[in-house]
Structure formats: C-alpha cells, structure tokens
Specification:
126 residues; mainly alpha; 0% strand
Length: 126
C-alpha cells in the first residue's frame, strides 16, 4: 500500500464505499469542523474583517491563529482556550462522517480502520 493512500480511497478500493460517499462525507466533515475564527465571529467576539486581518498576519508569521489574535489584542488567551475546546468538542473525523451519512456501519468502519492502520504501520516499518 502506498503511504499517501487515504482511508477513504482504501475503503473505495475495497468496494465498501463509493467516490461519491467520500465527497459527501468530506462535505459533512467540512460543514461540521469549523475554524476558531468562524466560531469567534459567531460568538460576536470579533468581526469577519478581524479574522481576515489575523489570517494575513498569520500567513507572514506562520503562527497559530490564536497566537496571532492574542498578539493583535483581538482575542484573549481565555477566549482562545474556549474556542479551541468548542472546536475540539464538535470535531468530526472522516470515518464518523461516513457512518453519519450511512455509507458504512460503525462496526465495518472500526474493523477497516484497524486493518488500514496495521498496513500503514507495517509499511512505515519496512
């Protein structure tokens, strides 16, 4: 197995899901997994314009969004901690998204994820 093979393509190669399932699951995942800037705007803590300013500075400094926002005095450390916790609590993994859309059962997901990880580990050790 090629190291760069993603789990979705592994499942598709095994004919357990389709390429359409991959796209649909990624869409669900993308919709669910929000960026902390989005959450901060939703909470009314900063504006969309401030998010864009942070992103411009972040591109130059290569710092994390939260570190940049704090340095620019747009968010506090406490707010960043709250945003990261909220982001983490609602994070959806690709496999979870596949189960949510009904592309694969939870049991099949777990079984195949174990096999996929075992193959990747064997490949890394070879």
């Amino acid at each position: 197995m090629n190291k760069s093979v993603k789990f979705g393509h592994y499942l598709a190669d095994k004919k357990l899901i389709t390429s359409q399932d991959i796209l649909e699951a990624r869409f669900v995942q993308k919709k669910n997994n929000r960026l902390i800037g989005e959450i901060a705007v939703e909470k009314g803590w900063i504006t969309e314009e401030n998010v864009q300013r942070i992103l411009v500075v972040q591109e130059e400094t290569l710092e994390k969004f939260g570190d940049t926002a704090v340095k620019m005095n747009l968010l506090t450390e406490n707010q960043i901690e709250q945003l990261l916790k909220e982001q983490q609590d609602s994070y959806m993994f690709f496999g979870e998204a596949l189960v949510k859309i009904g592309a694969i059962s939870n049991e099949d997901l777990i079984k195949n994820l174990k096999e996929f990880n075992k193959l990747k580990l064997e490949e890394d050790n070879s």
